[in-house]
Amino acid sequence: MLIKVTCAIIEQFGRVLITQRSETMTQALLWEFPGGKIEEGETETECLTREITEELNLIVTPTQRLTPVQQQYPTYTIELIPYICQYNRGTIQLAEHKTYHWVTLADLNDYAWCPADLPIVKEYLSLQLTV
Ligand SMILES: Nc1nc2c([nH]c(=O)n2[C@@H]2O[C@H](COP(=O)(O)OP(=O)(O)OP(=O)(O)O)[C@@H](O)[C@H]2O)c(=O)[nH]1
After folding, report:
1. Residues framing ligand 1 (Cβ under 6 A)
2. What range(s) does the Nudix hydrolase domain occupy (predicted)?
3. Pairing of strands 15-20, 35-37
4. Which of 7, 27, 51, 130 is most buried (CB neighbours < 10 A)?
5. 35-37/69-73 β-pairing
6. Separation of CA 36 and ligand 1 centre (Å)
7. Main-chain phi, psi angles of 77, to 5 degrees
8. Which of 55, 78, 120 to mutate to test the pocket of ligand 1 (most atoms within 8 A of CB)?
């Protein structure tokens, strides 16, 4: 079964927000873009804004859909659907994650990412070079 997951590349002041999964989560301690599984009857962007509010207490607006990535993990397969998002308001309060970083584009490659995120980081960086 394919599990659809949205994730947010939240931009502010030339940096992006990334989150570290906690010890108790699957993909423990790896870095990801915050987001989560699409629920029944939900659009991708509804899922994204709900998850970002639940996980981080932030209000964001999705602005650009990037290329979805299919990733097979040992016991399940996900389709990870990334959106670039603008930060609107809110102060970060972590509900699930271990920690977060606001990182410069140059530093994005230095993190231990969930495997599904690697092509997304690559695409995102390639877009920044051409604008
Ligand atoms: N939110 C999010 N999930 C990701 C990313 N990359 C990636 O492989 N995933 C995987 O997508 C799945 C769904 O994410 P989730 O955040 O809703 O997972 P969860 O903790 O609710 O599910 P769980 O209870 O199975 O651990 C997880 O297995 C997670 O490891 C990412 O960038 N963002």
Report:
1. 5, 7, 25-27, 32-37, 71, 78, 80, 114, 116-117
2. 1-129
3. unpaired
4. 7
5. unpaired
6. 6
7. -125, 135
8. 78
In this predicted structure, what is the pLDDT of residue 130? 54
Q: Is the pLDDT of residue 24 over 60?
A: yes
In whole numbers, what is the pLDDT of the chain averaged over residues? 96
pLDDT over 60 at 47, yes or no: yes
Given the structure tokens 């690697």, which residue do they identify? 118
CATH of domain 2-130: 3.90.79.10
**Would you place residue 19 in the very low, low, confident or very high pLDDT band (cuts 50, 70, 90)?**
very high
Q: Both tokens of residue 74? A: 């040992």
For residue 129, the CA-to-ligand 1 centroid distance in Å is 28
Ligand 1 atom closest to residue 116's alpha carbon, by position in its atom list: 8
What is the predicted pLDDT for the residue at 1?
A: 87
d(CA 12, CA 9): 10
